[in-house]
Design brief:
Elements (H helix, E strand, L loop, with lengths): L11 H15 L4 H20 L1
Amino acid sequence: MLDGLAPVSVPRAVAQASADVLCAMAATAPAELAQVAHELAARLRESARTA
């Protein structure tokens, strides 16, 4: 779903915290929104690993 988004450089702590928040939100979100949140969280965590 997020294939059109370009990678963006963010500080490691910001990426990790944002991913944590997205996963927490996904726990109570409708399925499609939860899927997007998990995909974005995965991208943020990858960004944090390479920051």
